[in-house]
Amino acid sequence: MSLTLLKTNFKKNWILFIIFVGVVLMYFSVMLVMYDPEDIAALAGMLELFPEDIMEAMGFASIITDLTSYLASWLYGMLMLGLPMVYCIILGNRLVAKMVDNSSFAYLLSTPNSRIKIIFTQGFYALASVGALFMTFFSMGVFMSSILHPGLLDVKAFFKLNVTTMLVNMVVIMIAFFFSCLFNDSKRSAGFGAGVPIIFLLMNMIGGASQDLKTIKELSIYGLYDPVKLVGGGEILRVNLIYTGIIIGLFSAALYIFNKKGLPL
Amino acid sequence: MIKVDNVTLQYSNGKGIFDVDFEVNEGQVMGYLGPNGSGKTTTIRALLGFMKPNKGACTINGMDCIKDAPEIQKNLGYIPGEIAFLDGMNGDEFLKFMCDMRGTKDLKLQKQLLEMFDLNPKGKIKKFSKGMKQKLGIVTAFMHDPEILILDEPTSGLDPLMQNRFIELIMEEKTRGKTILMSSHIIEEVEKTCDTVAIIRNGRIVKQSDVGFLKSTQRKGFIISTDNLESAVQILNGAGFENLSVVGKNIEIFVAVDQIDRLVKTISNFTISDITFKSQSMEEIFIQFYNGEEE
């Protein structure tokens, strides 16, 4: 791994990181301010007026009263997949395909560093930044809950929730990264890197809408991801291992392909 | 030593380079000439290890350009044909980045080069003029004092003064024993700096020889003004100069170097009101050369 390159990636991309932290921070605060254990019953009553299918499609699965499940359902059901996805798509394309497309990658390769080393550094940055994103979300959640609703957050369950959600988003950035390494053309890389995760997200929404369509969700990368069950004490080791396996698989494939391919630089 | 050993590298559209075979010996400078799209950059891609040849192999100092690329890069300076720097960087940041990536500690040469090319690297590269970007590319390629240099149209975008500085730089590096492969469009540059030339056309090397060949192939052009156009043309034709055209009130004539003496003696037979010298461009030489090939 090249530390110089890692540092340069950070310099070039920290603003993108801050923007997404800011957006998620806003949602976090709105959600936490809105939470009121006594009002939640009223909210539950109101929600019963909506058709159940629509609520499920949006990921707001069941009507919950405790703070941790509330966050898992309302924030992690959809927003914490959709928002970081945009970050992953942008960053994944920037780290490789964009530089190959505009030929600036030639300068990375005209140094005594192998392709493998350079691509590994780029992939490591992608994963590390998603890790940092979720560490920030976790700390933010804990900190803000302790001020607004002291003692109500189940920190351990919330941590587990963030780990699995981080892994799901790492799968997303590795999909974007894989296409970024596969295509020399930035447009194609961005197209597939965005298209495939968006299709998965839509499959997740459609599959959530009714029991008959459940298989559609299960075929997506979100098939194993159930935030409410997760904080309710559901088994997560197997899920986490599967996601980790997919991440390693995609990363290795990206390295292999990039090392072999011809670069029009 | 730079060695391209019988390399074929074909793109999916059928273009590419075919059976390209040449070497640049240690301490030599080779000019690599050819029209646009003839395969110069493709050859350089193979040498830099960006693309794998379908057939044959490239080696630099005996190392394979694909497998040993990182090792080769330790002693290689490269100027891309179309320079693109990393997004959003300042010039001095970029130089520092490249030094860090290469592990270059000694910045003396970098400073000298910046002075030589009168370049202030501060400020966003995006805002640099084309010439400034080219200068930054030159500094980047030479600042770690590499033994081997691969330069793809290194003077494009430079003004004549800086082109001369660049020629000085190449001469200096040559005396220090550097091995240089340089593609170019500027004939003076090649004549002054190169020991040998290779000419590529449609992906195939059509001529390889020492640089003297360029001189002997090159024709000198003269634009001659005279009051009596008709008789002047008659006199020239009579002396066997067929390769002339009448443009306005002038006669344009191209002759080989060994014909100049005879031409001057011939034109002394009529009254000349003006005479100008016209140098032949690389493209005109190519055309003349290719026509010769086809005949």
Straight-line distance between termini of chain A:
22 Å
Task: Write the CATH homologous superfamily of the largest domain in chain B.
Answer: P-loop containing nucleotide triphosphate hydrolases
- Helix-and-strand structural type of chain A: mainly alpha
Interface with most residues? A-B, 25 and 28 residues
Number of helices of chain A: 13
Q: How many domains comprise the coordinates of chain A? A: 1
Range of strand content of chain B: 25-35%
**In CATH terms, what is the architecture of the largest domain in chain B?**
3-Layer(aba) Sandwich
Element pattern of chain B in H and E = EEEHEEHEHHHEHEHEEHEHEEHEH
What spatial form of chain B do the alpha-carbon principal axes imply? globular
Roughly how many Å apart are the termini of chain B?
A: 35 Å
> How large, in whole angstroms, is the Cα Rg of chain A?
20 Å
Mass-distribution shape of chain A:
elongated
Structure class of chain B:
alpha/beta
Oligomeric state of the chains present here: heterodimer
Counting DSSP E segments of at least 2 residues, the number of strands of chain A comes to 0
Helix content of chain B: 25-40%
Instruction: Please write the string of helix (H) and strand (E) elements of chain A.
Output: HHHHHHHHHHHHH
Count all strands of chain B and give the number.
Answer: 14
Largest sheet: number of strands, sense, barrel closure of chain B: 6 strands, mixed
Number of helices of chain B: 11
